[in-house]
Amino acid sequence: MSDYRELTVWQKSVELVVCVYQYTRDLPKEEIYGLVSQMRRAAVSIPSNIAEGSRRRGNDLRHFLVIAYGSASELETQLEVSRRLEYGEAARRGKAELLLGEVLRMLNKMTSK
Q1: Model pTM greater than 0.85?
Q2: Domains of the chain in sequence order
C-alpha cells in the first residue's frame, strides 16, 4: 500500500473523528471524563489503526482493521447511549452515525476478504 491517506476508509474515519469532536463539545461537562473521553478515544482509534496497519509488513493490516472495526463498534454503542440520554445536538450525532455506518461497512468488507 503506497499511502494510507489515499484510502477512502481512512479519509471517512478522519472525517468521523472531526464530527465526534464537534458533537461531544456540547455534551454535559460532567461527561468530560466519561462518555466524551470514551467517544473521542474510540473515534481516533479507527483511523489510527488503519494507518498503523497499512505501514506494517506482512499480514498485519487485517489485524489492525479488525481492531479499527472494534473501536467503531464501541463508538456505535456510545452514540446510542448518548442518544438515549438525549445528549447533544441530534443533527451532529446523526451526521456522525451516518459516517460511522459507512466506515463500518468499509471495514467489514475489507476484513471479510
Answers
A1: yes
A2: 4-111 (1.20.1440.60)
